[in-house]
Amino acid sequence: MKLKIFSDLHYLPKASRPVTILQPFWSSPADNDVSPWSKSIVHYAKISHSLFEITSLEKADFAILPFDWLDVRGNTWTAKINSSVMSLGIQFAEMVKQAKKPLIVFFASDCSHEEIPIKDAFVFRQSLLASQRDPGDFAMNAVYEDLIEHYHENELPIRQKKAKPVVGFNGYAYKTNWKVKLKEIVHKGVVLKNGGTSFSPYKGHSLRMEAIKYLSKSLEIETNFVVRENMAFFEANDLEQKLKFRMEYLRNIIESDYILCCRGRGNFSIRLFETLCCGRIPIFVDTDCVLPYDFKIDWKKYCVWIDSKDLPQIARRVLEFHNNLSPQEFVDLQYECRRLWKEWLSTQGFFTNFWQHFPEKYFKK
């Protein structure tokens, strides 16, 4: 279904990029940027005009705030508000309200489970707390390159089932200690002082280490763990280093059957989407999460699903899941995971199905 959408470039702050849904209409991918992750919207850009039509506010089905609400929040450590950007957002929302049109806001932040001061908007967030979810809150995908296309010649490598499942993880994790607890206390104080919430950006990394500990103890599981002391890719200084870490990360996924996917700073896992992209089976640690298209996708069909409070049982859950799959079902599930990502969670897939978030009453006849 093709949606008629409205936005206004005059409400885009000078230092901000348009939200992803609008980028093909207002800008083009940078041809001189050689990094593969800069090509994340190429396929969506090719079909964007068949999915959305930019119209006047009067004719539009929906209005879209042109910038990510992250630009209002700025530094997630301090949660300080950029008052000038917020003012632009509220002005835009008021204009849309006067026109009696529904408003869509994107909020791709680690702390994006926080409320925004605009009533009745549809808000698409990366980080959501299911227990605090409002009716207009939806989970969004993570925007990044197709790992198989850019690094594996667009050929999905398929693994055959073995008696011992291979569980992989390459990333940042650590044990909780007094230094981490002190950081949590300081962070909570700073954020609350600036009007934010007390959601901890540190809990996820210690949960990862807890899961790794339990999985490593099982003699029936082969582990493929690379535990890093920092967020190596994001902290790398140059493109060459970033590519090196990216390839190591991808190799870890490709050479494993299952990948541990647990939240990091925010209450979501980019690794979940990357695992599916590579046709591997996620071991998803649920920390009160909301996943994209949860009203359409039976997520537990594609994942070893475990609540964070049940981590001591994680090895047993993986073995039960693995042993219940026949060799052919194990192969088929790899293809299904890849298909799920392409059709629903890639940038083009997410926006192709975007209309399904909204009741029929919002579409113009």
TrEMBL record:
It holds the Pfam family Exostosin_GT47. Residues 244-317 form the Exostosin GT47 domain. One of its GO terms (molecular function) is glycosyltransferase activity. It comes from the Bacteria. InterPro entries: Exostosin (IPR004263), Exostosin_GT47 (IPR040911). This is Exostosin family protein.
